[in-house]
Amino acid sequence: MITTKLPKVGTTIFSVMSALAQKHNAINLSQGFPDFPVDKKLTEEVTKAMNSNFNQYAPMAGFMPLREQIAQKTEKIYGISPNPDTEITVLSGASEGIFAAITATVRENDEVIIFEPAYDLYVPAIELQGGIVRYISLSTSSFRPDFEKLKRLISAKTRLIIFNTPHNPTGTTWTNEDLKTLDSLLEGSRILVLSDEVYEHLVFDNQKHQSVLSYPNLRKRSFAVFSFGKTFHATGWKVGYVIAPKELTAELRKIHQYITFSTVTPIQVGLSEFLKNEENYIHLADFYQQKRDYLCKLLAQTNFSFAPTQGTYFQLIDYSKISDQKDTDFAIWLTEKIGVASIPISPFYQNLSNSSAKILRICFAKNNKTLEKAIEKLSRL
Question: Are residues 143 and 269 in the same domain?
């Protein structure tokens, strides 16, 4: 018999709700994947790479021309140019980057601070290393970080702080003042930072994404994690990258080489060509803001309450005017009886006493017709 190393972990809520959507032929606004195609120019570049025999192992750290393009893109956006040889690593999805960074730095009884609701990968990865998770629950009225709570939680045992902006599942974004405050709090400490920035290009209303890379003192202690899958509507490709200082990158790669060793080669080659034209990514915020605004226009016809999301391609909706059910029960009922699948927020919490809000998350990375059909069903409630 085997004793599980993750006794609290079962099937993720994303898999559960997607399976339920499929079973009941419901419109799936739960899992975060687009239902529109990848840019034809990108798939052509990947196909060209395959036909040119780029089908063997890529270098462990990533195809160098791709790392060079990442460095150039980073300089254009954030004003810093990471060394593609020693500070950029291409991995099999941002999830691998997050897992590898945690594995490389967290030891038994190290404390890791996370803000909840939190993406469900963080806690299991920490616990597998014997780390201890310390939680800061974001207020359900604003989902803003509370730095007084953070200050009280930091101790001599704190090894790592993890945050996510734009934030999944709430869609909130950290501000320039937030990053400055974090920088000030960590000054003089040896605490590391893991910054999950996979929705970097999905920031709305003329706001600018705040990356740890733009703050010199934070950058020195940070792993910044990014996703090509989220950026280019190709979540199934599972390609991401991590930018970190040389010393942290060296430790990350020690783990990466024994998880996947290298990431699918023709996709890396195709991406290296696609990134040469900044037009392929600089307008993504405009594209998704149009979808957000259209969704909000449709939602205004329903009895759900909402505030337009600041970032990501997720929108929170409050159903307290409709039902008193807890969010997991209501999400299941909505899928089975109304035909629209969503994600309840409570599974993003470990401290369930802070997860009683009647809120669901829906994905708007969908064709307008998909959104229209879904909201037509929701408007009946």
Answer: yes
